[in-house]
Amino acid sequence: MIKIKNIYHFYLNNDRNKIVVFDALNLEIKEKEIVSIVGPSGCGKTTLVNIVAGYIKPISGEVLINNKSITGPGRDRVVINQGDDLFEWMTVANNIRLVAKNKSEDNIEKYIKLVHLSDFKNAYPKELSGGMKKKLSLVRALAAEPEFIIMDEPFASLDYQAKEELYEEFLNIVMVSHKTILLVTHDIEEAIFLSNRVVVFFGTPASIKQEVMIPFLYPRDKNIKELNEFKELKLKIRL
Q1: Is the Cβ–Cβ distance between 140 and 172 less than 8 Å?
Q2: CA 126/CA 91 separation, integer angstroms
Q3: What are phi and psi of 57, to 5 degrees?
Q4: Which of 40, 137, 180, 197 could be stapled to 148 by a disulfide with Cβ–Cβ 3.0 to 4.6 Å?
Q5: What is the 3-state secondary structure (H, E, C) of the chain?
Q6: To the nearest whole number, what is the mean pLDDT of the chain?
Q7: Are strands 34-38 and 197-202 parallel, antiparallel or unpaired?
Q8: Are the C-beta atoms of 138 and 80 separated by less than 8 Å?
């Protein structure tokens, strides 16, 4: 479980004025839950990612993982960003092997098969499509065997068709791995389709405007987007 407790954080703008991002922010994410955070640009979504990842320390408050306060980055957390985070000079297999907790050949093969990249085992990232790169980033994160995965706009660089093809496969991979996921996205449809719960940020400092439970059972397919219930959730969450 992840507990974000009483986070207060600010930064100074170019005029050295204090901009408060969070003031007593609290949020809990349960084990094996997929939680999406949505909100307008500048509401602190990426700042929260950096705090939970341990890249920056909040002015006050804390983040606890299984009741242990984090003090910096750790192997219990892996971040997948919007940009390409693969090592271009390494093959698919070696990208996974570099971070894998278990570096045995059988284990590397298991992860390659999980994302259907067996035919590209010895290929380099430049030889992969955008969707294949994202699958490799995800499975590489799984190979590190973290307790949870933080995803910051991970699909934003893909076109609509590539996203549609990847969403269902992403959910299948996550369901097999049983990982806890914190997903930051500006795409409300994406948040609803992938998540158990959507948390809406609003304002400055950012506060939780609403939390919406997503009722659809896993596995999900793209046809749920045509359901009236899905469309109603989009209107409810609309920023």
Answers
A1: no
A2: 10
A3: -100, 130
A4: 180
A5: CEEEEEEEEEEECCCCCEEEEEEEEEEEECCCCEEEEECCCCCCHHHHHHHHHCCCCCCEEEEEECCEECCCCCCCEEEECCCCCCCCCCCHHHHHHHHCCCCCHHHHHHHHHHCCCHHHCCCCHHHCCHHHHHHHHHHHHHHCCCCEEEEECCCCCCCHHHHHHHHHHHHHHHHHHCCEEEEECCCHHHHHHHCCEEEEEECCCEEEEEEEECCCCCCCCHHHHHCHHHHHHHHHHCC
A6: 89
A7: parallel
A8: yes
Cβ-proximal residues to 47 (8 Å cutoff; 6+ apart), any chain? 9, 21, 22, 56
- Enumerate the β-bridge partners of residue 124: none
pLDDT of 114-163, one tens digit each?
888 999 999 999 999 888 888 898 889 889 888 888 988 888 877 787 78
Query: Alpha carbon of 33 to those of 17, 149, 208, 239: distances in Å?
Result: 38, 11, 18, 23
Tokens of 110: 């298991």
* Regions of the chain where pLDDT drops below 50: none
